[in-house]
User: Which sequence fits this backbone?
């Protein structure tokens, strides 16, 4: 409905599931031409997505993973598995904007459908880590996170980063390969969609002739999970919670040259401290406004990491 239209962009509704053909007729006044796309439209009913929590760190080495789709509309350079850099483990995904066809092409990481109906208590979040550098101060690619609750017909933008908000490292003209300090965490609240049972999420790169963009450790679930399950997460704690003017960290035996970082909910680094052979460490939080933050503890040499949620309340 309608069965035909003369509008340039007609909106057509299909009342029943099935496969439909589409015919375009073009007239020059005296002559007609037409093109038919057979079985072009597939109409299905909304299903039920996969349960959460969900995580993907790409360390299986299989690309793309079985439940992820890579959309590459222009057939050019697109997302690829990368072993030269990762936030943790062996692999990440990399988009080579430096050698991609400039400009404006969109390349997508499409996650599986999720069922967000059976969620208990805690905040529902999407988290991941990213790294990016520009190739020129006047260029900047874009990273957009989109969400759909109607099978991909309409999307809501739930995060947007470009220029300074996307960059995690200084501008460089050579291909960007991040070190362990040049990754940032991103946290997106999915609470507005906690009643939806068929949610599509995709990570989109828009090329502007910039540089490499890396994605790793995608997680969807109730709480931010420690980045690497090695015992570090369970041995690392702090008090009080919620905090006001300070927190006291209770730390495992780390040895020397370890780091502690505090990020805000946008993934911006607010505090960096080096730790050495400390089992307890006090940090002032007087400069932090009320809200949600994340504390990341990392062992020396870019090894094991753990992340905890910090709530400041005054």
Assistant:
């Amino acid at each position: 409905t309608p069965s035909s239209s003369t509008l340039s962009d007609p909106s057509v509704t299909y009342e029943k599931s099935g496969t439909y053909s589409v015919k375009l007729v073009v007239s020059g006044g005296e002559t007609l031409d037409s093109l038919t796309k057979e079985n072009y439209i597939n109409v299905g009913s909304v299903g039920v997505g996969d349960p959460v929590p969900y995580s993907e760190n790409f360390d299986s080495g299989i690309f793309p993973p079985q439940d992820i789709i890579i959309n590459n509309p222009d057939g050019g350079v697109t997302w690829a598995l990368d072993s030269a850099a990762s936030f943790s483990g062996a692999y990440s995904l990399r988009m080579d904007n430096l050698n991609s066809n400039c400009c404006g092409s969109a390349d997508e990481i499409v996650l599986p459908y999720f069922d967000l109906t059976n969620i208990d208590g805690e905040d529902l979040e999407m988290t991941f880590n990213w790294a990016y550098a520009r190739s020129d101060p006047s260029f900047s690619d874009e990273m957009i996170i989109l969400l759909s609750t109607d099978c991909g017909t309409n999307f809501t933008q739930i995060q947007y980063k470009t220029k300074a908000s996307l960059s995690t490292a200084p501008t460089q003209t050579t291909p960007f390969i991040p070190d362990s300090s040049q990754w940032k965490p991103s946290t997106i609240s999915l609470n507005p969609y906690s009643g939806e049972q068929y949610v599509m999420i995709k990570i989109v790169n828009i090329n502007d002739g910039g540089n490499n963009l890396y994605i790793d450790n995608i997680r969807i679930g109730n709480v931010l999970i420690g980045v690497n399950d090695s015992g570090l997460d369970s041995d690392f704690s702090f008090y009080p919670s919620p905090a006001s003017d300070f927190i006291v960290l209770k730390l495992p035996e780390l040895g020397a040259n370890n780091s502690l970082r505090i990020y805000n909910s946008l993934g911006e680094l607010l505090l960096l401290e080096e730790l050495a052979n400390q089992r307890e460490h006090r940090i002032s939080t007087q400069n932090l406004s009320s809200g949600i933050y994340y504390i990341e503890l990392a062992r020396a040499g870019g090894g094991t990491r753990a992340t905890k949620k910090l709530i400041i309340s005054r």
